[in-house]
Amino acid sequence: MVASSPWRQQRRRKVFQSVFSGEVAGSTITAATGAQYLDLGQGQGISILGSGGGGGGGGGSSAVDRYLAPSSSSATLGHATPEPQPQPQHPYASGNEDQRTYDQAWQIVTSRVALPASATGPGPAPPAGNDLSSGLLPEDDGQFLQCLSLLANAEAMLPEARERRDVIEWYVSQVRAHFATWVVPLLAGGKEEKGGGGSQYDRHMVVVMSTIKTLEGALGMYFQGLNSLLEGLSRAQHSGAGEAQDNSTFGRRFKRDIHALIANSASQGGAVGSVKVVLTKLAGVILGVEGLVALPGNEKGPWGGPPAIPADDDFKVLAARRRLAELVKQLHNVGLTGERFEVLFAEVMNNMMSRFVKGAYSGVWGASDVDEGNVVGGAGTAAVSSIFTTSQGSGGEAGTTVPAATSACIRSLKDWVENRYAQLNVQVLSWINATPMSLADLKTCQSLALGRLAALRIQELFDIVLAWPDAKGALEDLKATITTTARRQLLTANFSRALEQRLLHPGSSTLEILQTYIHIIKTFHALDHSKVLLGNIEPSLQLYLVQREDSVRVVVAGLLASKEEMEAATKVQEADEQERLQRGATGSEAAAAHVRRREIKAQAYSTPAAAAATSSTTAYKTPATRSRQKRDSNPSTPGPSGRAWDRLPAHRKEQFLSRAKKINKLVELARLLNESASVRHAAATAEDDQDLDWNDLNWVPDPVDAGANYKRPKSEDVIGTLISALGAEDVFIKEFTAVIAERLLGEPKSFEQEMRVLNLLKRRFGEVALQNCDVMIRDIQESRKLDSKIRKNNSNAQQQSNIPGQPLLVTPDNKGKAVATPQQPSSNEIQGKEQKEPEYHARILSRLYWPNLEREHFLLPTPIVDLQKQYEKGYESLKSNRKLTWLNQLGQTRVELELEDRTVVVDCDTVQATVIYAFQSSDSPSTSSSPVKKAVDDLYLELQLDEDLIAAACDFWARKKVLRKVGTADGGEFVVLERLSDETAGAAAQQAQQPAEEKDKGKEKEEEEEEEVAAAAAAAPKEEMVKRLTNKEKERREVYWRFIQGMLTNASVSMPLAQMAMMMKLSIVEGFPWSNEELQEFLGEKVEEGVLEVVSGGKYKLVRK
Amino acid sequence: MSYMDDTQNSAPGSIPASKATAGAATSKRVIENATKRLQNELMQMMTSPAPGISAFPSADGNLLFWRATIEGPEDTPYAGLNLKLSFEFPANYPYTPPTVLFTTPIYHPNVDFSGRICLDILKDKWTPAYNTQTVLLSLQSLLGEPNNASPLNGEAAELWDKDPALFKTKVMDRHKDIEED
């Protein structure tokens, strides 16, 4: 077993000495003393070692010699202690007879109890401490006892022997030396034995067992020797009864010393590491941690709820428990259960707790109504389980079963701590005779465990938020565990980090961010009614959202989502739900089976105490909790564990995002708005003076981390929070007005949805803030009436004349200026044979109340202009003193085109209609033999319309296959596609620019390919948007330029860039979105235009004209 | 009535006693309101500028202190001159008028030699409906049509009617382009 060379032994010894220098040094010296006597004995021809009690086997004595010789010299050299040195010299100097006898007796005694030169004693060592009464070898008995008594009574019997020594002391130092020499290397050497087969646990187990065996052997040996000595001594002087007691005291002290020695030396060897591994393994099995780690995820299945922990009486657990008991007792016997062991054990248990919490509860967010089957077994738990079973079985007596307001996870964790964790602790501590655990310790353990759970949940919080409202259970865990300010801070810090990493990056759409934000608001509100936590994490999110230009738009669109959209979204969610249910079906069966098993078990355990517990639990249940439970439970999820689905976070996120994609609007907002409408109503009266709600039994003080002037927000106000997050109210209202305006000018229909949302918003912002919207809606309604009246009048007045309908709206403000937007179906016919009378409707807007309605100048087709004039006249006859201003570009037109082989009916805007009309009017129908061809430039001259718009309109018609682009010139030329068949030909011979010549009379309608239509439809709004944005942008730059002019005229003649940027930011109400670079670029353009110059110091200056 | 007049005549910036007693929070909000109003006025001036006048907050970023420029209207003695003014807005603007001074030396019946202006809308006729732009427009028209009934500069008032040529000379003598930087 020990194959170490002398050199290595030496080295180890040195290490040992360096650590325990004082103690071991002492023992070495005394050992050296003994060794000299041995040498002496050999010199005299008495081979003590050879005949000495038991011997250590063949090589033993020479090994001793080899070792002892150098050690004695080194000891004498190394230690200048004066006392032992003279001792050896004296006896021989004297030649005293008594002394000689004494020395001989000494030799006999010492050789009798001398320790063998190996770690283990001869043969099977009897258990240490048990051999006090065991007999000595008979033949040696006499001599040994005699000598011993000689030594013991030296004073009386050998008065001349001046040199006397205490044989017990000698023995103790012998033992120490032996231990240091032989056993310590073994303990340390354990680690080196690698490479054995079997699992790590097995290998370490082997190490531990061999260590124990070594120690047991050595101890047996030591005690055997000691006992012989003590027994001999006691016999030698068995006159005094007091002596015997001394001896046994001495025996105990010796044992304690030797244990201390062992404990100290063991700490540096690999054996301790092995013990730790073994302990970890066994404790893991007993506590049910092992299974969790071995089967990550699987065990838990898709169903949440605390995991099933192997029952207490599980075979494996029992075996492990027995094994542990054995092991600990053995360790205790060999003295390895000192303070260090306790520390070690505490470490192991600490790890166990962490691993258990992590393994058992990560990703388990089930709501609190999922659980019972999983409560850990054990005596204490039996009571709890039986509560469930009783109430479940008999149904009535206890009402519903959920005891008080703690979540399943917390309950199961507490049970685990109480019944498994603490139990193990208590057992182990009792095995090693340590201070037992008190009840307070148990509480501490539980709160520690809850702390771990809190840390875990904090880690998971972002995923919990995403899973809202499925993770209510996890929220309850958190709510119950974030009780300290430090934890709350950890939570906010952690969550903010997660937020930044996972959400606030360019990869997530504004919609996603807002949806998550809604979830965050809800989650945190559930977590912390005071909203302090939410307030702490919000700033970064809000800051980010403000930077997203479209966030207001998304919110407004969400608010205005129609019922259909909400329903669609709900369907998608339900589909998700079902998919989830199916996925979880297997899991639920398993869970159910488990429940059944537990029921049986629990019944077996149930005791009167359990019954008492039942009633007390019920007493805790307040109506409040019950109602909360009820509200929390989602009616669409049947089954006890319906909402507790567990997926890996990544997977969840994916799910979540894909769902977000399916629903492309924040319909949640619309739903919330509707809900809150009813809720608010009821709450409004009650909550008027909610600061003074004396009846609120659930009131709690504001959390300590609330600021000094912290004002408790009223309720979970998602919409309010969102809107305030997006900046000022007026920004939101402005955007809302813009969206409403757009909708109102769109398809004529009833604006129920808008009205409803408007009314709801009014409640929030007040009538005044939304007055514009009111006016806008009324405008539209009024103009309907007015429109029909005007048309009636007109038709009465001029029944003969054609009254074409064309658009426009108009409105007069009070001062007589009017704005009109057109709106009407009109029909133009290209090469049409019969001219139908177009209908013309207008909407009349109050200019002041509508946002940014700019006029786009272009020439309408003459028939339409005539209609406009008539309409205008009609209007002015109704409302004198008012004038209409037509906003031609805002109208809508239905165009019917009769082409050679087909008729096309298209709804389009007025610009597009005007453009296509131009293709008709160029030629008289008589020359219709060749299709009309026009260039964009021609159209520009003809219509005085912006070229870009003309090109866009032509493209629109080209997509409708009414026009075809010919030529590659910049502006491009377009030709009417009279027959669809021309297209292919035309495409083939595009350069030829000579499409069809003759027209066939046959009219064949060909269906347009749907794909193309779809593509066109998608493309069109985009183009428009770009167009609009650039217009807006142009305007904006114009205004900024005026700011800069004003600044450089008045504030200072010349200014550096940074100061200009600062001034812009300061003086523009809506903020100045440009970065310094953008501003610099803009100023650079102006410098190029020659209106600005750069003077010394990089300052900008207006050029004086 | 007389109380009202007092309030409006008191130097801008001095807050009436009743308001001074109000808490610091109130006065802060008042200033915020003034600032907001001024920002809006500025934006309005920029989006619908009037010819010949312009104004902007001073370069130190104090929104309560503006500088303005009026171009002397054609067919007045001030044609072709750039006249600078300073506007100092009280914290409770627009409830009290701004203090307006010509910083460019100007020879005008209603302006004294330190640039102070005698204009009723800057004194007792002020209402919150006026704004910087309207004040500037009034001043612009004042250049062409001085109110000689209540002159600050008696000589100028006299010369305006009697000797336009001399008046013009005096204007040009007095005028000095100031370059502030």
Automatic annotation (TrEMBL), chain A:
Question: Which stretches does UniProt call biased (Low complexity)?
Answer: 602-625, 986-995
Phylogenetic placement of the source organism: Eukaryota, Fungi, Dikarya, Ascomycota, Pezizomycotina
InterPro entries in UniProt: ANAPC2, ANAPC2_C, Cullin-like_AB, Cullin_homology, Cullin_homology_sf, TPR_ANAPC2, WH-like_DNA-bd_sf, WH_DNA-bd_sf
Instruction: Using the UniProt annotation, give all residue ranges assigned to the region (Disordered).
Output: 72-99, 570-649, 792-837, 986-1009
Where are stretches of biased composition, namely Polar residues? 793-804, 821-830
Q: Which family does it belong to?
A: Belongs to the cullin family.
Q: Which PROSITE patterns does this entry report, sorted A to Z?
A: CULLIN_2 (PS50069)
Task: Write out the GO MF terms.
Answer: ubiquitin protein ligase binding
> Which terms does the UniProt entry file under GO BP?
cell division; metaphase/anaphase transition of mitotic cell cycle; protein K11-linked ubiquitination; ubiquitin-dependent protein catabolic process
Which GO cellular component term is one of those annotated? anaphase-promoting complex
Source domain of life is Eukaryota
Name of the protein in its database record: Anaphase-promoting complex subunit 2
Basic and acidic residues compositional bias, start-end: 996-1005
The protein's UniProt keywords, in alphabetical order, are: Cell cycle, Cell division, Mitosis, Ubl conjugation pathway
Automatic annotation (TrEMBL), chain B:
Q: Annotated Gene Ontology MF terms?
A: ATP binding; ubiquitin conjugating enzyme activity
Residues annotated as region Disordered? Answer: 1-22
Q: Which residues form the active site?
A: 118
Residues of the UBC core domain:
33-180
ATP-binding as a keyword?
Answer: yes
Q: Which SMART domains match?
A: UBCc (SM00212)
Q: Where is the composition biased (Polar residues)?
A: 1-12
Q: Which CDD domains match?
A: UBCc_UBE2C
Query: Which keywords does the record carry?
Result: ATP-binding, Nucleotide-binding, Transferase, Ubl conjugation pathway
Member of which family? Belongs to the ubiquitin-conjugating enzyme family.
Q: What is this protein called?
A: Ubiquitin-conjugating enzyme E2 2
